[in-house]
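Reopening this one. Same input as before:
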Amino acid sequence: MSTQRKSATQAERDPDMVGAEAAMHRAARRARQRAAQAAEAVSRLDAGSYSFSQAQGYEEIPGPLKLEELPREARTQVWNLFFVHISRSRTTGGLDVLDDGPWVKGPWGEILSDKHRSDDGALDDWNPEFSRIRRSLREYIEDQPFNKVFDLIQFVLRHPRCPPEFIRQMKRVFAACRLAYTIDTKRPPTILPAATPDEGNAIVQSLHALGAAGLNGSASHLRNASACINRGDWAGSVRESIHAVESVARQLDPEAAKTLGPALKSLQRHGRLHPALTDAFSKLYGYTSDQQGIRHALLDQTDAQVGQDEAVFMLGACASFASYLWRKHAGGASR
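Same output, byte for byte:
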């Protein structure tokens, strides 16, 4: 009798629905396999180990990349991380197929919807279907210029719904891929240019020191300087870098709003800055005042005589200089 009821129930089911559910289950299994493969690739990055061939000298160990370089391998690892996290936000719209359904909901649905609007996308053009998001986002990461990909990453990192785990893992992806950039994970997370890991660590430590001292204006200028470098605005970056120093200097001496000299002389007078350092910092500051197009409007030149090297150097130098000035001032004041 029970067998007859079971057969009757099966006969009543719509064949098209049965076929659709079977196709959904197959798609779900494939999606889980892709997510597992991407997660495995990300976990291998976390290990930070060389391959056998690299360790034994059969293959060259890759060195750090240059600024503005975002090779195919790095783009793939960035996409893998996005795919792993977005996959966790899928829903099936009612069918019980775990979380591998066609719609992106939850935090990632909000993040990607907000990114769509930030790019001037019309609300009625937004489609949360996973397959469409996966295709368009992957193409974007693979094909767009490096700065556009960084714009996307930084937007996501700074979104209030961004999972902290994603921020930490993206920082590890940057390091494992040996990009000439690092990520400061403190709020707001910022992509910083760094030709070497030591250079990146120095800038990050300076940002943290300035933030801990309540010098948020100076830290903000340094983050703006990084953003200028990432979009190729070298002169703008130097301006922002030196503004970071001026912001600290104004805390040391009100007259420093006009020139850095009073702050430096005050530190030297109180024995907290060596005369040679005073002279060196004054000349560095003078470079930005004299150079056309950095501190003053362009006059008879079509472009400021500043390039990437100068901008990156000034970012590192001013970050270190700003935090150094404050530490010397705070150390003297505590005596």
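So the earlier flakiness isn't reproducible anymore. For the record, The two ends are 94 Å apart (CA to CA).
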